[in-house]
Design goal:
By secondary structure, the chain is mainly β. It has no helices and nine strands. Strands 1-2-3-5-6-7-8-9 form an eight-stranded antiparallel beta barrel. A hairpin with a 6-residue loop joins strand 3 and strand 4. The radius of gyration is 13 Å and the shape is globular.
Length: 96
C-alpha cells in the first residue's frame, strides 16, 4: 500500500508492506527514515488495523501510532505521535 501525507514543509510518500495473519498484523513502513521500520504491536479488529513504528524527526527518534480503517483497495489512516500532540489523516492505496 502506498500513502502520501502533507507536512508543513513537504509531502511525504510512505510505503506500507503489511501482512495479516488472523488478528495479527506484521510488516514494515518505509519513506520516513530512508529505510523500512518494523511494524510493532500490529492488530486487526474487524475492518480496523492498528500498529506503531519508530521514525525520526529533526534527529530525534519518535514513536508514530497508526490506526486505519480498511475499505475496498485502500486504508484510511490516522498517524500521530504517541503523546497525542500531533496527528494527520491520509489514504494508502493498494498497489498491485
Amino acid at each position: 500500500d502506498l500513502g502520501k501525507f502533507e507536512a508543513p514543509d513537504s509531502t511525504h510518500e510512505l510505503t506500507f508492506d503489511l501482512k495479516a495473519s488472523g488478528d495479527s498484523l506484521t510488516g514494515a513502513v518505509s519513506g520516513l527514515m530512508g529505510q523500512a521500520t518494523e511494524v510493532k504491536d500490529g492488530k486487526i479488529q474487524g475492518d480496523t488495523v492498528s500498529f506503531w513504528a519508530m521514525a525520526e524527526y529533526q534527529g530525534q527518534p519518535i514513536k508514530l501510532v497508526y490506526t486505519g480503517q480498511v475499505s475496498e483497495g485502500e486504508i484510511h489512516f490516522t498517524m500521530g505521535l504517541d503523546d497525542g500532540s500531533w496527528s494527520t489523516d491520509f489514504v494508502a492505496n493498494k498497489v498491485l
